[in-house]
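Notes for week 9. Today we move from apo structures to complexes. The key idea is that a small molecule is not decoration. When we ask for a structure prediction with zinc ion present, the ligand SMILES becomes part of the input, just like the chain. The input block below holds both the sequence and the ligand string. Read it once before you look at the output, and try to guess where the molecule might sit.
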Amino acid sequence: MLDYKESLKQHGLKNSKQRNLLIKLLSNADGIMTAEEIYLALKKQEEKINLSTVYRILEAFVEKGLVVKSTFPSSNTCVFTLKHLEHSHHLICLKCKKTVSLPHCPLKEFEHSIEKETNFNITDHNLELYGYCNNCK
Ligand SMILES: [Zn+2]
Ligand SMILES: [Zn+2]
């Protein structure tokens, strides 16, 4: 179980009710959410919040590496998800936004060969696979 307050502190962010609510929401969300969806869900708990505040909090979280922002390839929709503590990759349904974790990272070997070829020291990567789940295809 992730301690939200602790993880805010670890990322150098001050606690606030709105930040806490947003993290809690994303960690309970079964998958990924757009800023508008986050805003509507938060508004049920915190009437004073507005969409630009949600964007501001999200940008701060993305900057600190607490939240991952991705863009759906075809529609330019921005979606947000809590960064997983362990390194992982996901299948994401473009319609219902269901996500499924891949059982292992397929890029480790690839990274090693790229490091050899380019002399880069690779420290991280993102990989998400988009498509339609069994219910939506
Ligand atoms: Zn689906
Ligand atoms: Zn990986």
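The chain has a mean pLDDT of 87.
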